[in-house]
Amino acid sequence: MKFKLTLFILVFLAVLTPVEAQANTNALRREIAHIEAAADNLMRLTLDVQNRTLRRRIAAEVDELYEAAERMRLLITDNDTIPKPIRDEDLEVFVQVLQKASFSDTKVDMIREFARSNWFTVAQVGVIAEQVAFGDDKVDAILALYPHIVDPQNGYRLYEYVSFSDDRERLKQGLVELQGD
Q: pLDDT value at position 80?
């Protein structure tokens, strides 16, 4: 119950904040920081959830909150600013850390966290996706990175990073959903 209440409050704040932001950009930045902090707390609470499927669904909803906060942040910055992709050296360090993770779903969680604060080229997404062994998890990783791609014109190449037709179909469905936002 506490979890549902926290999620409701976060969504409520995410809806109200853009209206208030028109009057005061600094207030919007503070509210975005509050939303992200609350989402961080909510993500920590998911560790107490025993059901793996439920934990993943909750994590996906928290990811939506982070994405909404990022979109709000982009609204208050110069629209002509194109984010810069992560430096190759920093990506290499992340890949090395990722390789040490034992389980595929752990890697996906690490990728989601890493994606929140970085931007990527499609080629960099491929480097990261290669570190995930299972098709379902690989699709989840690509979909987590997709909103942070700086060269969406190369998005067609994302299909190269999954091997099976079922995974390609699931990737296609996920991309359609993300592009619909």
A: 47
